[in-house]
Structure formats: structure tokens, C-alpha cells
From TrEMBL:
Lineage of the species this protein comes from: Bacteria, Pseudomonadati, Pseudomonadota, Alphaproteobacteria, Acetobacterales
GO molecular function: 2 iron, 2 sulfur cluster binding; metal ion binding; oxidoreductase activity
The protein's name: Rieske domain-containing protein
Top-level taxon: Bacteria
PANTHER family: 3-KETOSTEROID-9-ALPHA-MONOOXYGENASE, OXYGENASE COMPONENT, IRON-SULFUR DOMAIN CONTAINING PROTEIN
Organism of provenance: Acetobacter oeni
SUPFAM superfamilies: Bet v1-like, ISP domain
Length: 442
């Protein structure tokens, strides 16, 4: 590794052994086996999943609202009676948003000339035409509503019925927990959000809010469609914030009896993320489910939807009473995270691509998962040459960072999905094939 670079990285990531750090420093800047690939920030989400687009409470009976999935404007319509439905938010006539219209029974009527569309998207009325001359309608999206969220399926509608959400998100149904719903628009590619949550070495940034915490990396796991990281923590200085005490249900100081007592498990189960904190076999004190729905054509903005369930302490009503403190605490943390990921996104724009030097193996596993699960659209495919070298460097990196790490990372798993080389969708695969063919010609 270049000496100047080495001096910029004086400390290895939390819990990383010296041996591991040395190994990484030898492979980190030019990892072997790196394939010509893509800039992760140009990889678009796989649309063949359910994506949250609104909170249920945002859509009152008899109303319609406009939401988005990537470049697709979507009108959500909740009839007075019956389930929510979703249509392309553009009247077939003059492209006026249908979400500006009004709900009439099981249909929505455009505000301009009054064309009406039913649940299937078919145009069912044009007030000034006979019924026999109705034009084509608009696209419809599969919708489901669960745990206070409205989801749409923006991909192939035929896949919607066989693609499932977890039965319950976080612990919303459990009376032993209180759940906070939070989120807002964040101006960055969804991959920055996944990386931020999974890389707990960024506790450094939250020092003002949390005091000094030493994260210890316990291990990682890679399965088809999933990457997991596990950590424990020790407070090394500073006072425990009230918000954290509320989550753990007790006051904690820097004494060793609290050090590394709980295990935090963070998973990206594509395209969602979860985080829970657990002490031994006890029920988790905190359980988070979170998703990042792209909001623009380039997918460089996302709307975050988080469900944060906190275990109620033994004293009834205490958590309700203290809830405003917990909300304020989690908002401050989220604000710091939002600011930093937006700065990362801005740097990507300024530099014209992803020049990250990622040294933490589990984050490279995560980047591999996100890249292989999404796709690169045709118009982005030519811009991928400036990718970070580390994006695809999962295959040859050490898999464990300390003795206790039990790693099941699999380069080739039984499903046939590879965790290592980045698959980047049809376009990029075609490009690689073409490049190989060109090389063979030479
Ligand atoms: S634009 Fe919708 S009815 Fe004319
Ligand atoms: Fe954070």
C-alpha cells in the first residue's frame, strides 16, 4: 500500500486483530481477483420486491396521495370502503397527476377533464365520450398494507404473489414493546444507508451523543441475499445518554460488568435491514426494521421507513412517560447519520464516482450483495469505470477479524448465487462479455 495512504489509516477497525490489519494493508489497495465492475452508487434496486412508499396514517379513507418509487410517480388511493390501490400517477389524457383528483367509490377521477380509472387502471369513464369509446388506462401496481406501512411492488406484477415480506416487521404486534415509526427523505443512494448502519465503527461520529464507545466486531455471516454483522460494545468514557438507558432499561456506567455484555446483530436481508440488541438468550431490548425506497430516476435519493421497537421495562407506563426523550435521542442520532451520508453522496457527485477505499471485510461483503442484487440501467452502464477497487474485493479478503468470528461467508453457496464477484445486471454482464470478446480478438 502506498505509504501516504497507510499513514492516513493509523488504526485498524474496531476489534480487528493486528494480523488481520496487516493482511488487509497488503491486499487493501489492490485486492486480487477484482473484476471490472460497476460503481455501486449506479446500481439500482431490484424492483421485484415490496417497497414501502407511505405510512398508512398518511392516507385517509376517501383520499389519494402521490408517492414515488424511483422514477415512477404512483397514486395511492384509499376508497371509503375497501383496500388501498395504486395506479401510475399520470392521467392517460394529459399526464396530470391522478393524486390531485378525487376518489369516487372504487375509482379515482382526474381533476382536469374528469376521466375516471378503476382499481385495475382501466379508464372507466370519460364524461364527454360514449362508454363504447373509452381510451386505454394507466398502469396499476400490486399493493399491500402491513404494520402501518403501504407497500407497492414496482417490478413484474406476476412475481408479487410469490415475494413475501417478513410476517411481522420489528415487534409492532408485541404488547411487550413500544414501536416508533420514523424516517424521511435522505439525499443519498440507498447503499450509503446500508453501509452506515452495518459499520458500527462509525460510533466515533456519535461520540457527542453517546459518549465514547468501543465497538468490538464479533463476526459476520453471508448467505444468499443476506449479510450479517455482530458487535458488542464497551463504554470507555462519558455518561450514558438517557435515551440509551431507556433502551437498555437500566443506567450503565463505564464499569467492566457492562462491557461487551450485549450483542448487536445487523443484517441486510435484501433490500431491507434489521438491527437488534440482545443480552444472552433474553428477548431483544431493541428491534429495528428499516427500508430505503429510491425516490428519483438515478436513485440518489431515498425515503427511509424505520420501525424501532423498544422493550418495555418492568414498571408499567415508564416507557410511555419517557418516550419523548427516546424520540429526541434517536432523532439526534439519525440527524448525524443523515448529514454524513449526504456528505458522502455529495463527495461522490464532486468526484464523479465511487473512489472509496473500504477496508472492513463485512462492508465489502455488503457492497457485493447490494451490487449483485441490483442492476445497472443501460444509460448508466458507460459511467461505471471509476468504481472503487474495493467494491468487489470480497472473495480474497480475510473473512474473520478476530478469534471469535464464526464466518460462513460463501463464495459459492448451494443456491448458486455467488457472494464474491459482483453480478451487475444484464447490461453490465453484456458489457463484460463484449470486453472479453474484444480482448480475445486482439
Ligand atoms: S388530464 Fe386527466 S382528464 Fe384530462
Ligand atoms: Fe449512526
Amino acid at each position: 500500500m502506498d505509504q501516504s495512504l497507510q499513514s492516513e489509516f493509523p488504526a485498524q477497525p474496531a476489534g480487528m486483530s493486528q494480523e488481520m490489519a496487516t493482511e488487509l494493508s497488503e491486499t487493501g489497495d489492490k485486492p486480487e481477483g477484482v473484476m471490472p465492475g460497476v460503481d455501486l452508487r449506479r446500481v439500482h434496486c431490484d424492483p421485484n420486491f415490496w417497497y414501502p412508499v407511505a405510512w398508512s396514517r398518511e392516507l385517509k379513507p376517501g383520499k389519494t396521495i402521490g408517492v414515488r418509487y424511483a422514477e415512477h410517480p404512483i397514486a395511492l388511493i384509499r376508497p371509503e370502503k375497501g383496500e388501498v390501490f395504486a395506479l401510475e400517477d399520470r392521467c392517460a389524457h394529459r399526464q396530470v397527476p391522478l393524486s390531485k383528483g378525487r376518489v369516487c367509490g372504487q375509482s379515482v377521477q382526474c381533476c382536469y377533464h374528469g376521466w375516471a380509472y378503476g382499481r385495475s387502471g382501466r379508464c372507466i369513464d370519460v364524461p364527454y365520450l360514449g362508454k363504447g369509446k373509452l381510451p386505454n388506462g394507466v398502469r396499476t401496481y400490486p399493493v399491500l398494507e402491513q404494520d402501518g406501512l403501504i407497500f407497492v411492488f414496482p417490478g413484474d406484477p406476476e412475481k408479487a404473489a410469490t415475494t413475501h415480506l417478513p410476517a411481522v416487521l420489528a415487534r409492532v404486534d408485541d404488547p411487550g414493546y413500544k414501536t416508533r415509526r420514523f424516517g424521511r427523505v435522505v439525499n443519498c443512494h440507498y447503499s450509503f444507508m446500508h453501509e452506515n448502519l452495518m459499520d458500527m465503527n462509525h460510533q466515533f461520529m456519535h461520540m457527542k451523543q453517546m459518549g465514547q464507545m468501543r465497538p468490538r466486531f464479533l463476526g459476520q455471516k453471508r448467505e444468499p441475499g443476506m449479510v450479517e454483522a455482530r458487535y458488542s460494545f464497551a463504554r470507555t468514557s462519558g455518561k450514558q445518554p438517557l435515551g440509551e438507558a431507556l433502551i437498555f432499561g437500566e443506567r450503565r456506567d463505564t464499569s467492566s460488568k457492562y462491557a461487551d455484555r450485549d450483542v448487536m446483530t445487523i443484517r441486510t436481508v435484501y433490500p431491507y435491514q434489521t438491527l437488534h440488541i440482545q443480552t444472552g438468550d433474553a428477548e431483544p431490548v431493541m428491534d429495528l426494521w428499516i427500508a430505503y425506497t429510491p425516490q428519483d430516476g438515478e436513485q440518489l435519493t431515498n425515503r427511509t421507513f424505520g420501525l424501532l421497537s423498544v422493550k418495555k421495562p418492568g414498571i408499567p407506563g415508564l416507557l410511555d412517560l419517557a418516550w419523548p426523550f427516546l424520540v429526541a435521542f434517536t432523532e439526534r442520532i439519525f440527524a448525524e447519520d443523515r448529514e454524513i451520508v449526504e456528505l458522502e453522496q455529495q463527495a461522490w457527485r464532486d468526484l464523479g464516482g465511487d473512489h472509496n477505499l473500504e477496508v472492513f471485510p463485512v462492508i465489502n461483503l455488503l457492497r457485493g450483495l447490494l451490487a449483485e442484487s441490483g442492476f445497472v440501467p443501460e444509460d448508466e452502464a458507460g459511467k461505471t469505470e471509476t468504481q472503487s477497487e474495493a467494491v468487489v474485493a470480497t472473495e480474497n479478503q480475510p473473512q474473520a477479524v478476530d478469534e471469535s468470528a464464526k464466518v460462513t461467508a460463501a463464495a459459492d453457496d448451494s443456491s448458486g448465487r455467488s457472494s464474491a464477484p459482483v453480478k451487475t445486471g444484464r447490461t453490465a454482464r453484456r458489457k463484460r462479455k463484449a470486453a472479453v470478446a474484444a480482448e480475445q480478438k486482439v
